[in-house]
Amino acid sequence: MTRPLAIATIAFFALALSCHGAEPAAIPYKQAPAVDELMMRLVGGLVLVAVVGLGIALLIRRFLPGLRIIPGQTAALQVMQRTRVSATNQLVVVRYGDEELLLAEGPQGVQLLKSRPYAPEQKDGSHA
Q1: 54 and 90 in one domain?
Q2: Which domain holds residue 83?
């Protein structure tokens, strides 16, 4: 049992002595990236940021439509009042530009019941 260990030890020292006189191998190191590679990474990063920003903007437009209004600008269509008539039907007063519309909404769709020019409410709360 000690004989294989002794042979292995002698072989190791013989190998070490034979490599001692040889030139050591160069240690590899990381090369600096080329300018073209840096530019491609920069452009790729900018494109990625632009695509992510565009995706967020589209999601906001899709799921939060009320945020599309520019500050200081009023919406052209406003729901003024909503009254439920039954479990499936409701009356809706909508202001569109200079008009006030009374709409009936139900399972069969939306129907226009009445249209009149928009007049802001009086202080006593009555309509004209």
Answers
A1: no
A2: 71-117
